[in-house]
Design brief:
It comes from Brachybacterium fresconis. This protein is an alpha+beta fold. The chain is about 30% helix and about 20% strand. The protein has a single domain, classed as 3-Layer(aba) Sandwich (Beta-lactamase), CATH 3.40.710.10.
């Protein structure tokens, strides 16, 4: 049985791709259908920010957002902003408060520093070099991307084997920022701690969680509330990219962790035939 046959247990249309360092190991379903990425967009904005860091256009300690906040705080959901508001819940660095507004504010800081519209920056610096030809960038830098799973897989493959970022910046992109912070993981409740990197979620020891029980703590990625998700596990040397035709729901919470573990069992550290 293919690990990806577990997608059928979702009860609605879905697709997935398994990636190793050499490329696609396995896929199932319509990976070319455009899908809303929603919060998975944050990883694209985080990656685009890392390119700007590498080019010296911005610095993680640049003041940005509410008083006392930096670009690092914004990208790591530690600025104190509410979910979708410029109001603040607390001072920066005290709690992991997931914030679309904070990611959008990080993108505005990039625009001011680079002189680019954020969509143009993403296209020129990330999408075009990676061949993400069907990515549509519109609306919010936190939730606005639309594209097929096949294009999202190109981003996942880049995180697995970086080509655009030099090692210091690829490590920074996926390293936990403010590791001690506690917070609510949307859809999964309070996590102590609740690690995030720069636009990427980090698995850590979160439980419950949408990745597999056997994914390593260093696994990074994101899920979106319209049913798109991906993770990259550096210890397993493996990535999984998922798209579905349903908002994130209890079926995802049940199937995705089991799917992750099945993919790990089938593919982790294996040598392709």
């Amino acid at each position: 049985m293919s690990a990806l046959e577990l997608l059928d247990e979702l009860g609605f249309e879905a697709c997935a791709m398994v990636l190793g360092p050499e490329g696609v190991r396995e896929q199932r379903g319509d990976v070319d259908l455009p899908r809303p990425w929603r919060s998975v967009t944050k990883t694209l904005t985080g990656f685009a920010s890392a390119v700007a860091l590498q080019e010296g256009r911005v610095g993680l300690d640049d003041p940005a957002g509410p008083e006392g906040s930096t670009l690092r705080h914004l990208l790591a959901h530690a600025s104190g902003y509410f979910y979708e508001s410029s109001r603040t819940l607390q001072a920066p660095g005290l709690r992991r408060h997931y914030s679309n507004y904070g990611i959008d504010e990080a993108a505005r800081h990039l625009e001011r520093a680079t002189g680019y519209d954020i969509g143009d920056w993403v296209q020129e610096k990330v999408a075009d070099p990676l061949g993400m030809s069907r990515l549509e960038w519109g609306g919010s830098p936190s939730v606005g991307a639309v594209g097929p799973v096949a294009d999202l897989a190109l981003l996942a493959a880049e995180v697995l084997r970086p080509t655009l970022l030099r090692p210091p910046w690829s490590r920074e992109l996926t390293s936990v920022q403010f590791p001690e912070l506690v917070g609510i993981m949307p859809g999964f409740g309070k996590q102590t701690p609740n690690p995030f990197a720069l636009g990427f979620e980090v698995r850590g020891t979160k439980s419950p969680h949408w990745t597999g029980a056997h994914n390593s703590p260093g696994t990074v990625g994101h899920f979106g509330m319209r049913g798109t998700a991906f993770w990259v596990d550096p210890e397993a040397d493996l990535a999984l990219v998922i798209g579905s035709a349903h908002d994130f729901c209890d079926a995802h919470r049940d199937v995705l962790p089991r799917l992750g573990d099945a993919v790990l069992e089938s593919h982790a550290r294996c040598t392709p035939s």
